[in-house]
Structure formats: structure tokens, C-alpha cells
Automatic annotation (TrEMBL):
Domain of life per record: Bacteria
SUPFAM superfamilies reported in the protein's UniProt record: Metallo-dependent hydrolases
Cofactor(s) annotated in UniProt: Zn(2+)
Gene3D superfamilies, per database record: Metal-dependent hydrolases
UniProt keyword Hydrolase present: yes
Adenosine deaminase domain ranges (all copies): 12-357
Organism whose genome encodes this protein: Cryobacterium psychrophilum
EC number: 3.5.4.4
Protein name (record): adenosine deaminase
Amino acid sequence: MPGGGVSINTLPKISLHDHLDGGLRPQTIIELAEAIGLDLPETDVESLQKWFYDQSSAGSLVEYLKTFDVTCAVMQTRDGLFRVAKEYVEDLALDGVIYGEVRWAPEQHLARGLTLDEAVEAVQDGLEAGIEHMEAQGKSIRTGQIITAMRHADRSLEIAELAVRYRFDGVVGFDIAGAEAGFPASNHRAAFDLLAREFMPTTVHAGEADGLDSIRSALFDGRALRLGHGVRLAEDVTIERQDDDNTFVTLGPVAQWVRDREITLELCPSSNLQTGAIAAWGDELLDHPFDLLYQLGFKVTVNTDNGLMGDTTLSQELALLSDAFGYDLDDLEVFQLNAAAASFLPLEDREELTKAIVAGFADA
């Protein structure tokens, strides 16, 4: 552990890129599946967790996404959404997270009769119940919903309208997700135009399963303030030469723009290994371009993406990076300060998060 044995779990942390339908407890899946008569690939907690991890580690985003067929299936009722959202907050708080932006796609939760609005309200009620439950245990946490549209579908304008409708009732931003290659942000220009007119902040999944063209579209068509993953932005970084003490690089125009404008990268190290997003650089965490981007001054943040699929937590992701790249507490604090500054909260709230992070790390 960095800092001579300091527990990362106790440090205040910010989670920006975490999918609600990728963070369920295996026991919850089993119980919700039984209630609706859904057959599962495994029926005990340990085996089911292993199934999710193994299925998600095929080196393909397309294969990775298939596991969500199971989690979404048990999140089609108000009770299911409420429980999953409540437990999501509890798990974050127990991991030391003081603010979490949870993204999810309401359009994927209508199979049992819920409307889009009812789904959003069920999740918000669950989040608030989780916050109240953890406050009773002496842990402070707040949340914000990021309403997500599926990029391979044609409902993005409707989902953008939904996000705007609930912007003062728990929703803080908008995203598009799903299979990236072949489905650029430009396909959803009408939705992003609406969001821009309404001054609703956006993050866009880009630079995970597709390269620089996808990132360009996220920035131009999506007006993205943050890049979901964005790891393949490193394709626009050319290493000219390297010696024992220095690495000399040239930034291409996309990378230069992202760095100079301080557009935040929502990096998800373990997930990027599982989906093959960093295959161009290698297949181990040490090969991840996270450290290169960090050392070059990009606004990097650390995220889980999907705790169930990766069998991980935010604290574990930070520990893995610390082991791989020798980060200390000062580095981990930078990642949290970057995340606080990039959150979709008002300035005053972001400043409060910053103060809490600085205070928490000072006490470590």
C-alpha cells in the first residue's frame, strides 16, 4: 500500500465512471432472479461471480457486454431497480467513496411495464435510501445519475429529453454507451444538440473499442466534457525516443486538444484489460498507457467501470495502479482531485468535494 500501510479503502474517493447494471451483488442477482423465475448460469455466489469475471475477460467489448443480459433482466421492476440502486450506494460508501456518478440506460429497463420516468424515479429513490442508510452509520456520500442512451439504438433524443426533465431531481449528466465501433456520436447529433441548448453536461464512451475517429466524434458531435475510457487517445501520442531518465513524445492534434483543454479521461484499468482496449500496448496492467497519459499532464481519473464484471472496487483499482507504477498518496490524491473537478456538480459542490479530499488525505 502507498504511504507506508495506509488503507486506500479509508481515503475519500470520487467515482465518475461506474455502471449501475455492472455493480450488482451476486447474492442480489440470485434472489431477484428467483423472484421472477429467471434461470442463471450459476446459482451460488462464488460461482456466479466467477462466471461474470470469466465471461467479461474474453478480450472483446462485444463479449463483455453480453453479461449485462443477466443483470438487466433482474432490473426490470421498481423493486429491482430500487434495491440495486440502494445497495450500489452502500457498497460505494463502504469503499470510502464520498461522491459517485452512476450511469445507466433507462431504455433497457422497460420490459416489465415501467415507463422511462418510473425507472428514473425508482433508481433515484433507491440512491436516496442508500444515502440515508449510510448516513445512519456515520458515512457521508452523495450521488448523481448520468442518464445513458444506447448508441446502437435510435432513442437518444428521447433519452436526452428524459435527462433534461430530471436534471433537478438527481440527474447530473448524459452519456452514450454500448458497442462503440460503427456507432459514432455523430449518429446522435440531434440529442447532443438538445443537450447543448439546455446546457446539460455530457460524457461520451469513446476510445475504448474504437480509436481516434470515435474520440473526434465524441468531442465534436457530442461536445464531451469527459471521455468515457478514452484510453485509445494514446494512439495519438508518438514516443520519439526513450532513455533511462526521459521519454520524448509528440502529441497529435486530438491528444493535444484533450490535454490542453483539460478534458477528463475516465480511465478504467482492469476493465480495459478485460475488453482488450489496451491490446495495442500489451495485456498486463503495466502495459496500460495510464501512466504515460498521467506523466504527460492529461486529466486522468481512476474508475471501476463495472465492479461485478471486474470483481473489483475503486480502492482495488487504485491499489493495482500503485503496485504497477509505484504511485504514492500524492498521486492518488491527484486522481481524486481531478475527479472532483470534473464531476458534473455545480462549482460550489465541487469545491466542497475538493476540501473533503484534501482533508482526508492530510489525515492519512
